Amino acid sequence: MTAASTRRVHNLPVDSPAARERKSPVTRKVENCSFACQVCGSQIRPIARGTIRDHCTKCLHSLHVDVMPGDRASDCGGVLVPTGTDYKAKKGIIIIYRCEECGETRRNRAAADDDLSAIMELQAPR
């Protein structure tokens, strides 16, 4: 096996058809742009440090637009509702989402400027 054939994209061999399909055709600069939240209407600014803003900092809702993070390949487009949180030592607070349209569950790292009271509401016992 050569070094090139052992490289992986999203846990798939880099030269496999599935890995090629999951590569994003859009640059991070284009993906990381401001937007108006479709749930609460807040104007959300791009995230500052090398990643992509994909959820509202105020109400924490997102849209189901990715199959793999950043690829914008999902045909669903449903609203991702925050349902809870998790914590990972290396990643920090993880927001758990459920899609209103298809029911899929997704996980996403909380951003430093997310509304702390909204995150705390997700952590409260129900």
Q: What's this entry about, in short?
A:
It contains 4 helices and 8 strands; from the N terminus they run αββααββββββα. It has 126 residues and is an alpha+beta fold.
Helical fraction: 10-25%
Q: Pairing-aware structural class of the strands and helices?
A: alpha+beta
List the total number of helices.
4
Instruction: Note the quaternary state here.
Output: single chain
- Secondary structure: number of strands: 8
Order of strands across the main sheet? 5-6-7-8
Largest sheet descriptor: 4 strands, antiparallel
Radius of gyration: 16 Å
Q: Which stretches are low in confidence, meaning pLDDT under 50 for 5 or more residues running?
A: 1-16, 22-28
Q: What is the end-to-end distance?
A: 52 Å
Order of helices and strands: HEEHHEEEEEEH
Describe the global form: globular
Count of separate structural domains: 1
Give the rounded overall mean pLDDT. 79
Amount of beta strand: 25-35%
Walkthrough of the structure:
By secondary structure, the protein is α+β, with helices and mostly antiparallel strands. The protein has one domain (3-123). It has four helices and eight strands; from the N terminus they run H-E-E-H-H-E-E-E-E-E-E-H. The strands form three sheets. It has a four-stranded antiparallel beta sheet with strand order 5-6-7-8, covered by helices on one side. A two-stranded antiparallel sheet has the order 1-2. A hairpin with a 5-residue loop joins strand 7 (92-99) and strand 8. Residues 1-16 and 22-28 have low confidence and may be disordered.
